[in-house]
Amino acid sequence: MSTTTIQAIGSKIRKERTSQSLTQTELGDLSGVSINFISQLEQGKETVQMNRVLMVLETLGLTLKVEYNKTAGHQ
């Protein structure tokens, strides 16, 4: 399943964080970002900084994959 919105990414991050029994504070400390950032990210706020998103994903052992959307007609 593809993730196409920041809200969906935030939801997946929340799910993975809770599956690893981490609080937002613990994930923030491990990732080097604030609890406020983790909260905004999990809520799907569109103002989050991509470099920080990548730091959080790395901490959780997740990656972000960017692919062409073949149905969008781009070549």
Q: Average pLDDT across residues? A: 85
| DSSP summary: helix tally | 4
Strand fraction equals under 5%
What is the global morphology?
Answer: globular
* Classification by helices and strands: mainly alpha
CATH domain topology: 434 Repressor (Amino-terminal Domain)
Q: What number of structural domains do the residues give?
A: 1
**For the record, what is the CATH homologous superfamily label?**
lambda repressor-like DNA-binding domains
CATH domain class name: Mainly Alpha
Sheet with most strands: none
Number of strands: 0
Distance between the termini: 22 Å
Please provide the ordered H/E string of secondary-structure elements.
HHHH
Helix content: 40-55%
- The radius of gyration computed from the alpha-carbon positions, rounded to a whole number of angstroms, is 13 Å
Q: At CATH's second level, what is the architecture?
A: Orthogonal Bundle
Explained architecture:
The structure is a single chain. By secondary structure, this protein is mainly alpha-helical. It has one domain (6-60): lambda repressor-like DNA-binding domains (434 Repressor (Amino-terminal Domain), Orthogonal Bundle), CATH 1.10.260. The chain has helices spanning 6-19, 24-31, 35-42, 50-60. The longest helix has 14 residues, at 6-19.
Task: Tag the structure with descriptive keywords.
single chain; 75 residues; mainly alpha; 434 Repressor (Amino-terminal Domain)
